[in-house]
Amino acid sequence: MREFDLVIIGGGPAGMAAAVAAKKQGIDDLIILERDDRLGGILNQCIHNGFGLHTFKEELTGPEYAERYSDQVKELGIPYELGTMVLDMTGDKEISLISRRRGAETVKAKAVVLAMGCRERPRGALGIAGFRPQGIYTAGTAQKLVNCEGVVPGKEVVILGSGDIGLIMARRMTLEGAKVRAVVELMPYSSGLKRNIVQCLDDYGIPLMLSHTVVDIKGKEKLEGVWVAAVDERNNPIEGTEEYFPCDTLLLSCGLIPENELSKSMGVELSPLTGGPSVDESLETNIDGVFACGNVLHVHDLVDFVSEEAVRAGENAAEYIKGKPSSPGTPVAVKPGNGVRYTVPSRLYTQSAADSIHIRFRVTGVYKGAAIVITCGDKEIMRKRGRIFVPSEMQDIIIKKDKLPEIDGDLEVKVEEAVK
Amino acid sequence: MYDVLIVGAGSSGCAAARELSQYKLSVAVVDRDSDVCEGTTKANSAIVHAGFDAVPGTLKARLNVRGSKLMPELSRRLDFAYKNNGAFVLCFDKAQLPDLEELAKRGEANGVEGVKIISGDEARAMEPALTDEVESALYAPTSGIVCPFEMTLAFAENAFENGVQFKLSTCVTGIEKTSFGYTVHTDKGDIDTRLVVNAAGVYADKLHAMVSREPMTVIPRRGEYMLLDKEAGGLVSHTVFQQPTKMGKGILVTPTVHGNLLLGPTAENIDDKENTATTRHGLAEVRAKAGLSVKNIPFNKVITGFAGLRAVGDTHDFIIKECEDAKGFIDCAGIESPGLSSAPAIGEYVREIIAGIIPLEPKPDYKAERKGIVHFAQLTRQEQMELISREPAYGQVVCRCETVTEGEILDAIDRPLGATTLDGVKRRTRAGMGRCQAGFCSPTTIKLLAEKLGIGLLDVKKNGSYEKEADGNA
Fold first, then answer.
1. Which of A307, B173, B369, B398 could crosslink A17 through cysteines, CB 3.0-4.6 Å?
2. Cβ atoms within 10 A of the Cβ of A338, count?
């Protein structure tokens, strides 16, 4: 059985950044396992620009951003195996994998970084009634078909969900000559970034229909059209508001789900709020030496934040391998309060925290002129004002090291709404 | 000229084809769709009913019990997934206990083994997820679950191997009585045959009316379902029915042979024989009623919804007989529930009818066994290693949710009656059947299909449904 100090599951942006960071910390006996035939993960199909503004102060395309990291992987001589699928992992960090080249194999790791990414929510999970014809794709699948396989799946398009991939694909399909009739969003606000709404919809005159949804699908063999209806405050379609849109393609951009089937197989505890592992400030899961980062941990909107998070996971994995004692004492919980959907991490070991602590989270609605407040009992630890907080933008608050001694109990992260 | 032409490549037609393939006959199956198993057979509860529901003395009762008895051995010989998991019929109201007892009596009269009435507590002890409202239950240990796709494909492939011809994408447009038997007109030309077996599902009445004046109506009764992720598959281990009504067996909750959880069906008579669309009210009904039987169904784990049409005849029984006024035309119609369970017995029964018309002489070289597609995920580690070293394509996972390898997909396309569509690959291998519903694997599967079939990526179809543009009504 091959043994490694560190096995990184996934060669996307998270996996690569974690590997590079661990290597720089002196971990030489490591490997990246990637199921696809190249490093880079989903970035390879994201040929639009806008990546890397934070990290490189440049606007890169997805493949370019990926290349910055894959170049480092290669320069540093970090081994990686492509076309390699992990089938199962145990709590003892025994990893079953298969590949064409090496067949079926089990390897053992001292530490593991989980970086498997996420998947798109499929139609069935959305409960849209109607036929099941050809022509319905998740936005990411369509993106792969257009950008990697060179085929454009349709000519007249409706997009359900205003997630970033859906917005990007609205523009992409338009540039490929398709007519995008509308982007339909169930919520009263978009789940995509503002810049994408401007650059991908407004610039092309594509209407964004907020508080609307697709209620029925026509066409048995091939998609012929969809009915769109307005929804009430409880997201139930309002009868009489149905409008028919003829189309041959329906793209779904209705949310991403961290892909944690492998994490579960090894006994990693998941957060019901994120769908990802529940971790402490070092991004370590409930299993010693198993770390998580990137979209497998919680869905990010910017890859720069994925890379930054992955560096911390990689460095902490390196510390673990080098024998750093496990965190002393019992952790305090970090709980989402008013207006906050989740937090990562969900627990903190304040005594052993090496440095300042990142608290990442999303708000549950659109908040203007509000403040984010972190409290510990009656004590206010942090306060951050913002012009506007929206669910589509992940928030990142850093608790400086000098604040840590003040934390003597559970933390609550909440939105303090503006007084009306 | 054929001795027997079977119209319809669903479970009944394919079961009959397989039965007949044992004999020195020339047999063909026609179907308007481009694959077998595209109609009623592909969208149902996938249950092998024990046989307590049908009225004693009916063909339904007899063929259901016989079919259920044949199923275990057949699943081994033809290599398809079947599991004997037992079933409950739940009674929520003391006042309805007599009806439950009536069901148990029917079971006894039909020769179903082991049927008994137990208390709600006894039922909950065996199936802890049952709700507290369950007052009593009928327990049927012989009930089972099956993969309808695999079963029908197994029948078809076995029939094919034994010489039956399959004429797919071929739509029957008319039937003419001739001196030798029948000339069947199709959109791909005429087919001469001595006998016709009408296994045309919801269109069996239309086909029947081409040759017979005997009245027959087949009503499409739509049933809507929800399928849940494998994570929810362990919620129940038995099939959980509610007490039947005149519209059917009610909403059930069952594990599938592949470990998902299936909820449904609704029962709604409709006019349109093509309408397999789900509806908002239908899916809402499934949700509401399934929750009466089983606690804490995780509806956030729903991965897909679908609808199927039962072919409901007007006699409350299967109609399997030679037409009085059209000799040599054998109806196999009104095959609603328990049609899937009965399929092996329906095949036998059709064969018996045909044996009464023309002599059947066994083939000496008949192959009674069939080997299905290797399911990589089900192999032991050692077997996986050996398989990859022999055939590296099995080391490449295409569908990550169901762990389906390239080797399996290539086999599904290459084998006899191979897949030509995404759905065809899905039904044969489960690629795309999992939690991401083909999001990740479909681009690769499309590429493999295009390469193998020598067509463009955009020409690869999702399903094998008959295209309405063409003429014809069957």
1. A307
2. 15
- The rounded distance, in Å, linking the Cα atoms of B397 and A327 is 38
Whether chain B has a CB inside 8 Å of the CB on A85: the answer is yes
- Peptide bond before residue B338 is cis, with ω within 30 degrees of 0: yes
Give the rounded percent of residues in chain B with a pLDDT score beyond 70.
Answer: 98
Using the Cβ of A140 and the Cβ atoms of chain B, whether some distance falls under 8 Å is answered with yes
* Residues B395, B405 within the same domain: yes
- Is a pLDDT exceeding 70 seen at residue B3? yes
What share of residues in chain B are helix, strand, coil (percent, to 5)? 35, 25, 40
Give how many domains chain A has, as a whole number. 3
What is the crossing angle of helices A164-175 and A139-147, to 10°? 40
Task: Please write the tens of the pLDDT for every residue from A38-97.
Answer: 999 999 999 999 999 999 999 999 999 999 999 999 999 999 999 999 999 999 999 999
Quick check: B305 and A129 CB within 8 A?
yes
pLDDT category, B246, cuts 50, 70, 90? confident
Q: Quick one: B261 and B405 in the same domain?
A: no
Q: Amino acid letter at A266?
A: M
Amino acid at B369: E
Q: Is A374 on the interface with B (CB under 8 A)?
A: no
Cα–Cα distance measured from residue B308 to residue B222, given in angstroms and rounded to the nearest whole number: 6
Question: Which tokens is B217 given?
Answer: 């109506």
Decide if B115 contacts B181 (C-beta within 8 A): no
Contact A62, A44 (CB under 8 A): yes
pLDDT digit string (tens) for B47-103?
999 999 999 999 999 999 999 999 999 999 999 999 999 999 999 999 999 999 999
Chain B residues lying within 8 Å of A215, measured CB to CB = 280
Q: Which domain holds residue A182?
A: 122-254
Query: How confident is the model over A2-21, as pLDDT tens digits?
Result: 999 999 999 999 999 999 99
B152 and B126 fall within a common domain:
no
* ipTM confidence score: 0.93
**Which residue among B255, B290, B308 closes a domain?**
B308
Give the global pTM: 0.95
Task: Round to whole Å and give the CA distance between B229 and B224.
Answer: 17
Q: Taking a C-beta distance cutoff of 8 angstroms, is the pair A281, A354 a contact?
A: no
Indicate which CATH number applies to the domain containing B326: 3.50.50.60
3-state helix, strand, coil split of chain A in percent (to 5) is 25, 35, 40
CB contact under 8 A, A221 and B277: no
For residue B150, pLDDT beyond 90:
yes
Say whether both A351 and A285 belong to one domain. Answer: no
